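Reviewer 2 asked us to include a model.

Predict the structure of this chain.
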Amino acid sequence: MTRQHTILQKYIIPFILLSPAIIFLFITACKPFDKEIKQDQHIAAFRLQLSRVQDSIDDISGRVVAYQTIIGQIAKDKGLIAERKKNNLLIEGNVYLCNEYLISGGYDKAIDVSNEILRIDSTLAKGYYKRGSIYQLMNNDSLALLDYAKTLELNPDYTDAFYNRGIIYQDAGSYELALKDYTRAIKKEPLYIGDAYNNRGNVYLATNEVEKALADYDKALEYDSTNAKIYCNRAWAHYMCDDFDKALSDCNKALSLDSLNINAITKRASIYEKKEQYAEAIKDYKNVIKLDSLDAYNTHADSRKSITRLKALKSKG
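Predicted model (structure tokens):
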């Protein structure tokens, strides 16, 4: 007898000899697996639809309608038998929709969508973080802080919540709290770690801990060596240490990366003044006025005063 015949005898023939009732039970037991397979196929199809919206529709309003339509289809789909999987899919769709509202500046609608996400799952740390970040964009820091606190209660390792909350504390002048949150974020080594070091350096600078600020700016540049903002910040730390040559070098580096950086030009003008290079300082202040032609950054009054003062110093020299 061949091996094939042996296998047939072992598995197939005994199955045939089973009673009709047992065979019926076996076939019935397989039906849930069929439903699971069909459900997973539905999930895969919906995820494909969601991922294709960005590539297939150019305008935001069109993408919003598309996401709303897909979310509606998910909600009505009877093939999605597992509530957890269905809810996860609804959350994914609403995250896409929320991002579209954020891009277009529709913050109120983005809040509505984030509320829907939390209605679906009130234990979702990401949902509270999402809503908190929207409140922060709306300058509603008190509500943002509440959501970040809830995020961290549900997930104590949520790095982005530490970082964003640090920004709120920094802007409010709560430097001790900001330092704690930036330090917690840095320990998690996020992708934006250069920004975290830069921000913590700014807090150290604001509290006159200049050496710590310099160390953080150096660290930030290890991760992001082409960031003009960091060079500009480090320039001012050198300026506070009366190291004007290093300060000038950092300003020049910042401007080589971003020639229209008004902050860097203004700081370089101050450095030139300290180095008694008055002509160069005057030139920079004039450039500031030119670049900020509409005085959007309120630079004109101070720049003109500085030019008048520097011209007097230059004439004395």
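DSSP finds 16 helices and no strands in the chain. Residues 20-56 form the longest helix (37 residues). We have added this to the supplementary material.
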